[in-house]
Amino acid sequence: MNKTEKPKMMDYARHMLVCVGPRCTEEGEAQELFETLGEKFKAAGIDKGELRVKRTRTHCFATCKSGPIISIQPDGIWYYNVTEANLDRIINEHLVGGQPVEDLIYHRQGGTCATN
Predict the structure, then answer these.
(1) How far apart are CA 60 and CA 45, in angstroms?
(2) How confident is the model at residue 61 (pLDDT cuts 50, 70, 90)?
(3) From CA 115, how far away is CA 102, in angstroms rounded?
(4) How many Å apart are CA 2 and CA 93, to the nearest integer?
(5) How far apart are CA 111 and CA 94, in angstroms?
(6) What is the pLDDT of residues 3-60, one digit of tens each?
């Protein structure tokens, strides 16, 4: 009988979840953004070390408006309208600089919602 091997995972500071489901972006924009993350994370220096950000595709967050939508954990921050320019802001200001991008937040863990 084969023993199931325990998976291994590198340490990370934050986890970015990207909804690539068809209801958020019908033209596949979220998947295209996800595919750029490796290069963007490397350029920002968050692909390894203390600031490493793990990235994962998800199918649906059940908040299907104004996508692409991403969530940054454990911060409990949810962003909407994540265009390439907005993604660059999120990476530079939030993931590298530690300051969430307030005008792109639609939800915070704990029920505090952004108002525009």
Answers:
(1) 28
(2) confident
(3) 9
(4) 47
(5) 20
(6) 899 999 999 999 999 999 888 787 889 999 999 999 999 999 999 999 999 999 999 8
Q: Which run of H or of E encompasses 40?
A: helix 29-44
The continuous run of DSSP H or E covering 85 comes out as helix 84-89
- Give the phi and the psi of residue 5 in degrees, each rounded to 5: -85, 135
Tokens of 16: 């970015």
Q: Which two tokens stand for residue 37?
A: 């993350």
Q: Which CATH architecture has domain 14-108?
A: 3-Layer(aba) Sandwich (3.40)
Strand partners, 71: 17, 78
Helix (H, G, I), strand (E, B) or coil at 12: coil
Encode 1-10: b = buried (16+ Cβ within 10 Å), e = exposed: eeeeeeeeee
